Amino acid sequence: MRILILNDTQNDSKTIVMYTELLKIIEGGLNKDPRKVANYARLLAENLSKDGEAKTAERILKVLQSNQAQPVYLDQVFTPPVDQETRLNIADLIMPAATDEVQFIFSDTMRSKLDAFIGRLQFRNQLHAAGVDLAASLLLYGPPGCGKTSLAYYISQQTKLPLVVARLDSIVSSLLGNTSKNIRRVFEFASRQPCILFLDEFDAIAKARDDQHELGELKRVVNSLLQNIDEFIQANQSNILIAATNHQELLDRAIWRRFNSIIEVAKPGSQEIKALLSLYLQKGNVDFEQQSKKWDTLVDLLHGCSPADIKAICQNTVAQSIMSQRKAVTHADVLLQFYHFKHHNASSAKALVEFLSQHDVAQKTISDLVDISLRQVQNYLNSNN
User: Fold this and answer.
1) What's phi and psi for 61, nearest 5 deg?
2) Domain count along the chain
3) Are 151 and 140 in contact (CB under 8 A)?
């Protein structure tokens, strides 16, 4: 919110000029959009209250209540836009409450970067007074499965702003001109209320315009995207724009300039890997909880894996333990599922036996896990001698 307080020395009164919220309320009234009016009126009341103008804020809320205005973040008030060709939704609305139970595992460095980005909203009045651009736009890039979507959820949780997630699979249309129209619909939808607009798989609509293999229509899509980003950032300084890509090398050069914060989301380090293992195995009653050497072995093996990979390995481990009706998850169980995850193609029983033995799994345990006789396990191991 942009607030200018002017002191009148003659009558000792304060004139308060609310720029951004008033502009949005006026736009909503002119466009006959009562939801936009109610949303920004509530935001105005909230910020007035924070600035010590509780009575004015209360009067605004009473007016809204007397007109039976709906709460700002009830998802039933919003009708997601649809593709005119398929009639499929091209955006989903996720309320902040949906992220309350989500646990996030970040490095200290990543958390510091995120908190610095979020601080642009928390200190917007001070930033405005200092002449700092209030627009909050964030580009996330890095390998798939490393938590870019989780970061968007985290920012939604911390800011209490709903998340508008663009559905790129529905936005990209087979009809000429429809993709640009869909992009416009998504940005218009996100502009109706304070929110976070999240564009995942961003490279699908933001590819470099100098790519000779792309059709002219897709180049026009990028031009449309750039125009919508500029309008969204300039007109909605209470909102956040987040984009994420696994292929940053494909992005148009002009795209990078639209984001005032850029964060690389890399694969997890040792501390994050161990935290992810603990998180995803916690419901499996791990029987090696206090054995640091076994944890270290797993952490070493999982280096280079994404958080999504680690989650899949852990969930497969817990599922197999439950289906086998065992009371606890063992170190050998995790090793087995890691091996299967890394060897998608059929692998010989001999290679599996050797892998487990190399990681100090007892021969009897190997026999039970691989479902072969103890003699066969010994034969496989002795054949290398």
Assistant:
1) -65, -35
2) 3
3) yes
